[in-house]
Amino acid sequence: MELDYDYIICGGGIAGLLLASKFSNDSYYNNKSILILDPDYPKVKNDRTLCFWDKKKSVWDYLLTSSWENVIFKNGLDEKSLNLNPLNYKMLSSISFYNYTNSIIKNNTNIKVLNDKVLNFKDCKSHCLVETNKKTYKSSKVFNSILDWNSIKNDQKFPLLIQHFEGWVIKTKNNFFDPEKATFMDFTIDQNSTTQFMYILPFSKTEALVEYTLFSKNLLDENKYKSSIENYLLKSGIDDFEIKSKESGQIPMTCFPFFEANTKNILNIGSAGGWSKPSTGYTFKNIDKNTSKIIDFLKSNDNFKTFMKKNRFWFYDLIFLDVLYYKNHLGKQLFTDMFNKNNPKTIFKFLDNKSSFIEELKIMLSFPKTIFLSAVLKRICKGL
Ligand SMILES: Cc1cc2nc3c(=O)[nH]c(=O)nc-3n(C[C@H](O)[C@H](O)[C@H](O)COP(=O)(O)OP(=O)(O)OC[C@H]3O[C@@H](n4cnc5c(N)ncnc54)[C@H](O)[C@@H]3O)c2cc1C
After folding, report:
1. Which atom of ligand 1 is nearest to the CA of 40?
2. Which option is the CATH number for 161-253: 3.30.200.20, 3.30.9.10, 3.40.640.10, 3.40.50.1820?
3. Is ligand 1 within 6 A of the CB of residue 251?
4. How many other C-beta atoms lie within 10 A of the C-beta of residue 119?
5. Which CATH number does the domain 5-47+94-153+254-306 belong to among 2.130.10.10, 3.50.50.60, 2.40.50.320, 1.10.10.10?
6. According to CATH, where is 3.50.50.60 located in the chain?
7. Range(s) for CATH 3.30.9.10 in the chain?
8. Structural element, H or E, at residue 225
């Protein structure tokens, strides 16, 4: 059978571009022809700030805007300064990421990028078909990073919370920020029966990204994001500032089993593959880890159905999200309990799915026991 390409990557965003650049960097894939389909390529705007925690020295370091060893957690009663050593909290701007991955992709003549809009794709067993607004392409494998929000919104079994936010990079007239400390979560704002906090990443004494973030069922009116940031800045004593740039977005928080849609030849990747951590929305590190796993996987495997499996962390996320969904006003208390009663290194290990069972037990015991036990029982009765 004549194929148009070996691999087709639907969506050239963070996951698609990182996967393509990793194919380019591995000589095993030198002979593979790859097509990336994305109507929005090349991305020229800094449309998202990618933050993650990692070892002090890591591969992304030379592209970072900033990194912090200390982060602050605030809930109105106390302010906790958390030392993350041996980790750092790191900030990578998407434009640096796009420029870096594009420079690799452009040098690889086996990779082609087309501005087609993907309409559909299917696994025909011996090959895959990808239908776009311009043409239908045939390939042996498809990597899909186009997230279908409707499929997760309408699911009855796995409730969906949306992590939605608006962030402003501001420059203040006077020195205001401590560039040594990032504010990871500031819960001192009015909760309005939901889970919401401010997030501050300072790059200098006068410059920071200030982001208003909610974990809730519904989006807000556009003006509400703006007024919440303005009020917060005013209350913090910042009334003279310039907005340098803005970002906004939504990340799915759900235990919906995206990987069940993987077939032998189609792999869902990025947020569309369920790589956004359901309880936090952090995705970038999972994209980095899982795209490297694909590079190794394809050298000895042919069936994507076995690529992702449920593990115990999926179950922890499921219970945490159930509680947060049905008792959305409890977010501030849950995160306070977690940060007050546990060592930050253990928390970040837990959020990275790398903790031991004993560490996990300790973290779980820091949450309100009756509420969590009842959520576990409800899930068991529902058959998970
Ligand atoms: C503003 C913002 C900030 C974030 N900050 C963080 C963070 O700090 N840390 C973290 O870990 N995660 C963060 N995330 C979550 C996550 O890392 C990003 O959403 C990341 O972009 C996910 O990568 P992706 O490839 O799955 O999706 P995307 O990067 O969104 O890529 C999907 C691509 O598909 C393309 N596309 C859509 N429809 C079609 C179609 N029909 N045909 C072809 N192409 C199509 C789009 O143009 C896009 O390029 C953030 C998300 C947002 C939105």
Report:
1. 47
2. 3.30.9.10
3. yes
4. 11
5. 3.50.50.60
6. 5-47+94-153+254-306
7. 161-253
8. helix 222-235
pLDDT digits (tens, 9 = 90+) for 185-222: 999 999 999 999 999 999 999 999 999 999 999 999 99
* For ligand 1, atom 6: residue with the closest CA: 50
Q: Which residue, judged by its Cα, is nearest atom 35 of ligand 1?
A: 11
Angle between helices 312-326 and 357-365 (to 10 degrees): 10
Q: Looking at the predicted structure, is the pLDDT value of residue 384 above 90?
A: no
Q: How far is the CA of 13 from the centre of ligand 1 (A)?
A: 6
The residue-averaged pLDDT of 43-66 equals 95
Query: In testing the pocket of ligand 1, which one of 145, 166, 214, 259 has its CB within 8 Å of the most ligand atoms?
Result: 145
Under 8 Å CB-to-CB from 348, ≥6 apart: which residues?
53, 84, 87
Contact predicate 141/265, CB 8 Å: yes
pLDDT at 1 over 90: no
Distance separating alpha carbons of residues 28 and 112, to the nearest angstrom: 18
288 lines ligand 1 (CB under 6 A): no
> Which is the closest atom of ligand 1 to the Cα of 91?
8
Residues 184, 187, 191, 196, Cα dihedral to 10°: 0
- How many Å apart are CA 244 and CA 109, to the nearest integer? 37
